[in-house]
Amino acid sequence: MRWQCIRLVLCLLFAGGNFAHADSPFIQEPLRVLLPRDLGTIEALLTRPRGPGHYPLALISHGSPRSGAERSLMRPSAMLPQALEFARRGWAALIVMRRGYGNSDGGWAETYGACSNPNYIAAGEAGAEDLRLSLEMVSHRPDIDPTRMIAVGVSAGGFATVALTTDPPPGLVAAISFAGGRGSLKADADCRPDRLIAAFRAFGKRSRTPMLWVYAANDHFFGPELTEKLRAAFATSGGHVDFVAAPAFGNEGHNLFSAAGIPVWTSYVDAFLQKRNLVLRDNLLPLR
């Protein structure tokens, strides 16, 4: 009876409807993912190739704006170009708005506290909880292959993705972090970098999921000197990471994982997927 109830809830949550144009090669389906403890639901958007199939899943997770007032203005559609790049490669891509962002319920759970005494580990684990829950629930869909799932995050979403790998759900076979971190209050100034390094060291002790990390040379949130220390702390503690020090991107390298950066970052992703035997198609699906 318990599993019947869970499946009923899943059917209700994931009955979204296709919002893509009828002649599009992809579907777009808005979803709501149930939170525990009567906290409500979180907002999500699924896109995948049109037509029946059992698609591997790429979970895509956003960053966090420096201004808290902007969190409620965020929408999953802002990351649709990135999600479509995974769909073109044969993946179902799920964009998840974590608690306190966009139209998600539950209140903002990812605070790290005072800049002078940040608890980055707790912030990362709070974000990872939402990602883990989303993967677990969507894995029950008949169009999803629960044995081949990856997580992809940027900035605070990248940091949450690293935290996710310390206690990965079944079927998570790889993860990708673009410009992952927390604590940037202004350009080239971070709250207690030593605490951020310590958080990555702690995550590395428990993480064994293969990861790709990408940071651009002109990232003014987390610069090259700091990101090398993050990499070293994570890897020497036991974490598995392929590290890409990307060249400068535009005026702000923190924005590499964007629609404008697609010609650059997809090459890193393709190489990583090929190394992990996760290339699904020989040719990309056309966007139209």
Can you lay out the helices and strands and say which pair or pack?
Elements: H1 2-13, E1 26-34, E2 41-49, E3 55-61, H2 80-88, E4 92-96, H3 120-138, E5 144-154, H4 156-164, E6 172-178, E7 184-186, E8 189-190, H5 193-206, E9 211-216, H6 224-236, E10 241-246, H7 262-275
Parallel strand pairs: 3-4, 3-5, 5-6, 6-9, 9-10
Antiparallel strand pairs: 1-2, 2-4, 7-8
Helix pairs in contact: 3-4, 5-6
Walk me through what this model shows.
With 288 residues, the chain is α/β, with parallel strands linked by helices. The protein has a single domain (2-275), classed as Rossmann fold. It has 7 helices and 10 strands. It has an 8-stranded mixed beta sheet, with helices on both faces. Helix 3 crosses helix 4 (156-164) and helix 5 runs parallel beside helix 6 (224-236). The longest helix has 19 residues, at 120-138. It is globular and about 50 Å long. It starts with a helix and ends in a 13-residue tail after the last helix. 46% of the residues are buried.
